[in-house]
Specification:
Blueprint (H helix, E strand, L loop, with lengths): L8 H4 L4 H13 L11 H6 L2 H20 L11 H26 L2 H36 L16 H26 L6 H28 L8 H26 L2 E5 L8 E3 L5 E4 L6 E2 L11 E6 L2 E6 L6 E3 L2 E3 L1 E4 L4 E4 L2 E7 L8 H11 L1
Parallel strand pairs: 3-4
Antiparallel strand pairs: 1-2, 1-11, 3-5, 5-6, 6-9, 7-8, 7-10, 10-11
Length: about 375
């Protein structure tokens, strides 16, 4: 490391210049570099949204089946269990996903508000979605009434055209339910990217769950009245699919994220949804770094600026370094290592085309000439 302390003219007139210089001196003369801790492949998988979010969704669908199946009557047109079928499924999937996220990120307090609001709106939208779902299912009955009464008990007798039409209507109905689930779970206390990801995940998850329902009945258990296995598979598929596509949508839609390299959360990645994203030792911080006494409750903020991110030191007595250089405000680039106390964070962002500054383009043009 260069042994000369470099500060700009703007830095010289900042009120925290003394603490910045003291921290720089400590880094240059005394501080030893913090070594990145090894993260096992298993730990990386367990802390990945692509693992615990689908698993939580699957458990939500399974729990719904265990609770409601004893009360479902396949021959009753509608009963209490049928009314609660979609709302309870949506509620338990959301609850399990929030709990899994809180366990993985240790954000129990900050997730309480999201949990209550997510569950409340999910229940509301699930009951609202019950009407269009029932209309789609009734329309299916009206348009696809079986001409032969023997069809009522043996799905293998259905012609391919009738079976495909039946499949389309059921899938659309379940997609409506999945979309309501996705919208409810992230309607408030979330960003536009989170809402878009959860709605798309819910729609695709519900659609896939509906697609699996009838083929299981036709090819594996050819008896319509035996709906328990179909519902088990469909509910678990919906929960799993919602979890997978919510996680995938978040992964594909992310612009920037922070990966923790040391400490109890090493291996965990946090997508920068919030603007600003607060990082600190407070349980209410967007990224909660615990068990590091050198980290302030709100240590730094990552602000979205244009098509990039800027790091802002929250307080003068909360030193922060980027690539081992003390900073109080800095534009981040992918690959930067942020050091807070004894914790190392790796900033990463999605690759994008950057336009070279005007003066740089002029220099390049002169060289070509």
């Amino acid at each position: 490391m260069d042994e000369v302390l470099h500060i700009s003219r703007d830095d010289l007139y900042q009120p925290n210049v003394d603490s910045t210089l003291a921290h720089a001196k400590a880094v240059l003369q005394h501080a030893q570099p913090i070594v990145e801790e090894h993260v096992s492949p298993l730990r990386r998988v367990l802390l990945s949204h692509l693992f615990f979010t689908p698993l939580a969704g699957l458990l939500g669908g399974l729990t719904t089946w265990l609770i409601l199946e004893p009360w479902i009557d396949d021959w009753a047109e509608i009963n209490a269990a049928a009314i609660l079928f979609f709302p309870m499924t949506a509620t338990l999937i959301v609850v399990y996903i929030y709990i899994a996220d809180a366990i993985a990120s240790r954000r129990f307090l900050s997730n309480i508000g999201r949990l209550f609001s997510g569950v409340g709106f999910t229940v509301l939208f699930s009951f609202v979605a019950f009407l269009p779902v029932r209309l789609l299912l009734q329309l299916k009955v009206l348009l696809l009434s079986p001409p032969d009464l023997a069809w009522a008990t043996d799905i293998t007798l259905w012609p391919s055209s009738f079976f495909i039409g039946h499949l389309i209507f059921r899938s659309l109905a379940w997609a409506v339910f999945g979309g309501a689930l996705g919208l409810g779970m992230n309607l408030i206390k979330s960003t536009r990217g989170q809402r878009r990801a959860s709605v798309m995940g819910g729609l695709v998850g519900g659609l896939l769950g509906g697609l699996l329902f009838d083929p299981i009945n036709r090819f594996l258990i050819p008896a319509i009245e035996q709906g328990d296995v179909m519902r088990l598979t469909a509910l678990c598929s919906v929960g799993l699919s919602v979890g997978i596509f919510v996680a995938l949508s978040e992964q594909l839609g992310r612009d920037g994220w922070i990966r923790v390299l040391t400490g109890p959360l090493r291996g965990k990645a946090f997508i920068l949804y919030h603007n600003p994203t607060i990082i600190g030792a407070s349980p209410t911080a967007n990224i909660y770094l615990f068990k590091d006494p050198k980290i302030a409750p709100e240590h730094i903020a990552l602000q979205r600026v244009g098509n990039g991110y800027e790091l802002i030191q929250s307080r003068s007595d909360a030193p922060v370094s980027v690539n081992n250089l003390p900073v109080h405000r800095r534009r981040l680039v992918s690959g930067d290592q942020i050091i807070l106390g004894d914790t190392i964070l790796l900033f990463e962002e999605r690759a994008k085309k950057r336009t070279a500054p005007t003066n740089q383009r002029i220099k390049e043009a002169k060289v070509e000439i």
